[in-house]
Structures are given as structure tokens and as C-alpha cells.
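Title: Comparing notes on inverse folding

I've been comparing how different people in this forum approach sequence design from structure. To keep things fair, I'm posting one structure and asking everyone to reply with a full sequence. Here's the target:
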């Protein structure tokens, strides 16, 4: 391996959802080395205070950067992107490691929506993400013609994490029908957990709207980012390795990892405070 290429790509999420993004990244860019961290001990983040979400996010970033040599970290959790990303970029990185990068998922998702010509954009996400209005603020910077119609969907993450599939369709219908009636042209799945149910959402909406799923958006956006930033790309190791860590390696998480990734990957306990 090139001696200059020693750094990895980290992916952080509050639980399971970011694994879908990690899997999609590995499919598109299999040569790089990835470290995934799921904060399963504290999932979901949506009902926590701003201070708690920031502290949990900073601890996760430290784990990935300090213990696992990640020079580039993707915060796959929308709630953490809303709450912690800006402060992590503007304060934590500046104080500790200004040559490293932390990227979120919200701006790339909205860029993808506007590139597709979307203007009437629905958003389903955690209560915190919707109420923060961050999607509304960021879309205004990108396009004066686009509007966000947000719908908090707090029941979805627990149903996904704890195998509540038999209740999912009715819950989705209750959440989605008021949104669809607004005449949407696109619907953003504003939580990486929702990647798990993107096909259900498409079926329930009868494909009347374009469903934007972050596992389909983030990998090509990251590839483009690395092409624009060769100084970062040239530091990233390329051994095709993928490690999974979780703050609580529960039976439920193990079952989800095996279902999503197969039996080749054994999650390890992430020890940090």
C-alpha cells in the first residue's frame, strides 16, 4: 500500500440506518477502507436534547478519528446532521484536526432533489429533524423555487429497529396520505433508517412521487467530493476492508447486520466515553 494512504472513511449513525449507506458506498467504491459506528445504545436520537445529541455525536467522531484513523467521516444520521454537524465542522475540527473532514447528508440530498427538478418536496423524518426546519433553510439556499413539506414520523425508527414489519404499512399510510395530497413531485426519506422501507414507501404511494433515498444519493455525491478534493482522496487507504462497531451489540442489531450485510461481518463493541 502507498505509505501516504493510511486513512479510512468513517460512517456514523445512531443505529442501523447508516449501514444501508455504508453498504451502498462499498458497492460503488469498493476499494476504500470503511469503519462503521452505530450508537445503538442511545438510538433513537430524535427525542433527545440538542446538548445530548451533540455530545453523543462528538464522542462518536472522536472514536472514529482517534481510534480508527478516519480522516473523513460521514454523519449518516439526519438528526445528528441537523444538531451537531455545523458545530463539529466549525469548532471541533478547527480545534483538533483542521485537515480532516466531517460531512452530512442533508445538503447532498437536497442538491440531488433540485438536480432532478423537484420543487414540491415532501419530507418524512424524525420529529427533531422536521421541527428544526433545517431542510427548509438549506433548500432556500439552493433553489428559490423549491418548497419543503415536512411530516414527523416518530414511530418508524422503533418499528424498523425492532422488527415491527406487520404494523408498518398502516403507519406509513397514516403518515404519507396527508403529504401526498399536497401535490408533491418528490419525497425525501429524511432518516437513513427509512432506507429499509423505501420499497414499501414507493408501493404505498403507487409511485405517484419520486422517492429520494439517501443510500442512492450519498455514494455518488461522495465520489464527486473525492474527485474535487484529491488532497483528501490521496490519503485514503484502499484495502477493501469494512469494520462494524456498535455501542451496544444487541441480538437485534446482530440480526439486522446479518440480514443486511450477510454473515461475513461481525460487529464489535465500541468502547469510548
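Reply #1:
Here's my take.
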Amino acid at each position: 500500500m502507498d505509505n501516504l494512504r493510511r486513512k479510512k472513511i468513517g460512517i456514523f449513525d445512531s443505529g442501523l440506518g447508516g449501514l444501508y449507506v455504508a453498504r451502498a458506498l462499498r458497492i460503488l467504491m469498493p476499494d476504500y477502507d470503511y469503519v462503521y459506528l452505530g450508537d445503538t445504545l442511545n438510538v433513537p436520537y430524535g427525542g433527545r436534547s440538542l446538548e445530548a445529541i451533540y455530545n453523543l455525536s462528538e464522542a462518536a467522531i472522536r472514536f472514529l478519528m482517534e481510534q480508527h484513523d478516519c480522516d473523513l467521516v460521514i454523519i449518516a444520521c439526519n438528526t445528528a446532521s441537523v444538531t451537531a454537524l455545523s458545530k463539529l465542522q466549525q469548532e471541533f475540527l478547527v480545534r483538533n484536526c483542521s485537515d480532516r473532514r466531517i460531512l452530512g447528508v442533508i445538503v447532498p440530498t437536497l442538491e440531488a432533489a433540485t438536480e432532478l427538478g423537484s420543487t414540491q418536496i415532501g419530507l418524512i423524518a424524525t420529529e427533531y429533524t422536521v421541527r428544526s426546519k433545517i431542510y427548509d433553510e438549506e433548500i432556500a439556499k439552493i433553489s428559490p423555487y423549491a418548497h419543503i413539506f415536512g411530516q414527523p414520523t416518530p414511530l418508524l425508527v422503533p418499528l424498523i429497529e425492532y422488527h415491527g414489519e406487520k404494523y408498518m404499512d398502516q403507519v406509513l399510510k397514516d403518515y404519507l396520505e396527508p403529504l401526498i395530497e399536497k401535490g408533491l413531485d418528490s419525497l425525501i426519506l429524511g432518516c437513513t433508517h427509512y432506507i429499509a422501507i423505501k420499497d414499501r414507501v414507493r408501493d404505498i404511494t403507487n409511485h405517484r412521487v419520486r422517492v429520494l433515498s439517501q443510500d442512492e444519493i450519498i455514494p455518488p455525491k461522495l465520489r464527486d467530493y473525492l474527485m474535487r478534493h484529491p488532497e483528501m482522496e490521496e490519503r485514503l487507504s484502499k484495502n477493501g476492508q469494512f469494520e462494524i462497531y456498535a455501542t451496544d451489540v444487541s441480538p437485534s442489531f446482530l440480526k439486522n447486520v446479518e440480514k443486511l450485510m450477510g454473515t461475513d461481518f461481525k460487529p464489535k463493541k465500541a468502547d469510548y466515553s
